[in-house]
UniProtKB/TrEMBL annotation:
This is Rhodanese-related sulfurtransferase. GO terms for molecular function: transferase activity. Residues 58-150 form the Rhodanese domain. InterPro entries: GlpE_sulfurtransferase (IPR050229), Rhodanese-like_dom (IPR001763), Rhodanese-like_dom_sf (IPR036873). The lineage of its organism: Bacteria, Pseudomonadati, Balneolota, Balneolia, Balneolales. Keywords: Transferase. CDD domains: RHOD. Pfam families: Rhodanese (PF00581). The keyword Transferase applies. The keyword Phosphoprotein does not apply.
Length: 153
């Protein structure tokens, strides 16, 4: 099977989340020119999870929080998640249920927002064992073809 790698021209605006190519069914374009790759572990004691764990978490009705700031959401979200922007996370931490683990995510492996949110919560006294880090974020979610909802920011 022959594989072709196709490079698109550089965009004027950074594309932080993958987009479906309008003229090529099944093709997703990804911009890797922004951000800095984040560590696999957000903080000591915080579990890093993948898509399978996030899906099971959502199916059980457990909390998943999108910490992306307005202007970085690009109109896409993961169905069933709550949005608490990074700048409000400590102020709103009482909205989190400490009896259940909460998954935190942002734009993906190049985005520092969920890692920052987790560290801010740790500094405020939130228990590490009740936080899960979905490093792949919306970037990997879309790239894998998982369902998204239109997000109004």
């Amino acid at each position: 099977m022959e594989q072709t790698i196709e490079r698109f021209p550089q965009r004027a605006e950074t594309q932080m989340i993958p987009e479906y190519a309008a003229d090529k069914k099944g093709l997703v374009t990804v911009d890797i020119t922004w951000g800095e790759i984040q560590p696999m572990q957000a903080a000591e004691g915080v579990q890093t999870v993948g898509e399978e764990e996030v899906i099971r978490h959502l199916e059980k009705g457990l909390p998943v929080v999108d910490v992306r700031a307005p202007g970085t959401r690009h109109g896409a979200g993961i169905p069933g998640t709550a949005a608490i922007r990074l700048s409000d996370i400590v102020e709103r931490m009482d909205e989190l249920d400490r009896a259940k683990p909460t998954v935190f995510f942002c734009n993906g492996p190049q985005c520092p927002q969920s890692q920052k949110a987790i560290n801010m919560l740790l500094e405020a006294g939130y228990p590490a064992e009740k936080m899960w880090y979905y490093r792949g974020g919306i970037h990997d979610w879309i790239t894998l073809g998982l369902p998204v909802v239109k997000d109004s920011e």
